[in-house]
């Protein structure tokens, strides 16, 4: 191992010099599963993990909730009103809505009432993570957390790359939501957009500015009220299902309705099917709902604080040191602090966990899926499954390097104080190529 230790040590300093990222802070922990040896480069320093924080959340969620865990959404009704009861389903969308409406029709209901109330009291506490930047709260990736969620609580615009200038169109139309927007955008040929989404208080009026990538011409914004959004989308799906829908509706947040109620319900997919949204696609809302659910299933009043306590408690029971600061489930907060060594030990622990196959399959595949889809894959049979993390000035990558179907290395590479994200992506590529070269050298 001595040779590649030297090569790794030189890689960091050479990268800083060549990339101009002289002020960047690099930390790396690497564990060889074949040799049971650890390599570390400033691996015990506390760093901002960004979305690598989701690894803590998802690992503990598998332990505490179980791979088959499901969220439940109910619809209760009387003759003149409906009550939608949310259980926290983070992936509720068209399929679940149609299932719910199909069940309603089986009970002979052919008309949607003009009074639709909702109950999202299952998650009674925080709507955003601790330390989330106020400027982010209108962005699609920072949608508020509710027990009643629809289509990740965000709306989407798309533009035609063939237009001379980006002209945003809603996709779908979001009928009934009174979505308004003004945009000032230009095209970029780069892979990534640089767009800022701003929303007026208590409304779905947006201002959108920046440069939009022709390769990925989509913009998302967080809705101001997920329960209102839920009801309006449900009304749309009800029309599609052939129910009679009043032109307008009234409703409010309540816990119960008077009179005799009937009820139908629909379950979410199991946790194991939702986990790739967290670790491969890095959906912050889903990660935050995991943290809420961990706390909710264990009792207490503040689900977030209870969830944080259980995450730290579970890690200690596993014999692992918890993060120095774990304040949200997704890693969107700049207050989180972990070290590369801690994350590497978590990933090493999960290799022997009964849910390892679910955990590892939830990670993005380098050059193929999720947030790593656009990266350059390594030559077969070497593959990498990993979790990315990106915030302003932060770029992290933690995961596994496989030789065929066998995990060979566990790693966590964290970089803070970055000026250009692409520079760190080049470093990640070089790091993984070096490990792949070492495996090929050992074979020969």
Automatic annotation (TrEMBL):
It is an enzyme of class 3 (hydrolase). Gene3D superfamilies: D-Ala-D-Ala carboxypeptidase C, peptidase S13, DD-peptidase/beta-lactamase superfamily. InterPro entries: Beta-lactam/transpept-like, Peptidase_S13. Keywords: Carboxypeptidase, Hydrolase, Protease. The keyword 4Fe-4S does not apply. Pfam families: Peptidase_S13 (PF02113). GO terms for molecular function: serine-type D-Ala-D-Ala carboxypeptidase activity. It comes from the Bacteria. Its EC number is 3.4.16.4. Signal peptide: none annotated. Belongs to the peptidase S13 family. This is D-alanyl-D-alanine carboxypeptidase/D-alanyl-D-alanine-endopeptidase. It comes from Polycladomyces subterraneus.
